[in-house]
User: Fold this.
Amino acid sequence: MEGNFFSTKSSRMLGSLTLLMVIIALGSYASLNFQKVEFINPMPATISVTGEGEVLAVPDIGRFSFSVMAETDSAASAQEESGTKMNEILAYLKEQGVEDKDVKTQDYNLYPRYRYEERHCLNNSYCPPGERVEDGFTVTQTVSVKVRETDKAGAIIAGVGERGATNISGLNFTIDDPEKLKADARAKAIEDAKMKAEVLAKQLNVRVVRMTGYYEESGDYYEPYAFNSKVMAMDMEESAFGGANMPTGEESTTARVTVVYEVK
Assistant:
């Protein structure tokens, strides 16, 4: 009987110890699974805000283009006449303070002109076209100009027209370095997004932890002021016109960004 008592007591202790080990093992397994779930799918809470920035600036340059044309009997004389006119205009531009780096040839063409000889035919009879014959040469040269003293743009255009330029057109007032304005507008947009994120986080009763995403809209964000000077440049030699007053206006450069923040 004494042996059975000790055997029963030992069995009970062994069973209790086994049960305790099973409970500990199950607890460790559950804790490990919870850690795995948190690692696999953290799913942090985020907020997304859009910021906008705008920078205003007065245009600091004006751009326009003009052409010089010459028509003569030979290619050499056409080139000489065109070159003489162009050299006179370039010298005038330099006198007005326009630097060589701001004057650029856009196009240069030398091509022959033709005409058809007239035929004398009998009345009411078929008259074939006359023979095509060469009738001289034409030279055209187009040049673009950048004017940094914008208040002189009107007078410079008038002076160019007086010296034989034709087809003066496309005066645009714009910013010489638009990238700087874009950078300033972007900085304002980012600050705007930060302020909006702080306000939104306070309303949601959370705090901003860090930035997790950023997107900036691409594209051109400024529009130059345009003035078509083609009509103004006509008949310059017949008038004492000294150049129109040309307001440069003001340019608006904008940026738009979207920022994503993690919150807790």
Summary: Confidence is low (pLDDT under 50) at residues 220-242. Helices lie at 2-40, 75-95, 153-162, 178-204. Residues 61-117+129-175+227-247 form a domain with the Alpha-Beta Plaits fold (CATH 3.30.70.2970). The CA atoms of residues 89 and 160 lie 6 Å apart.
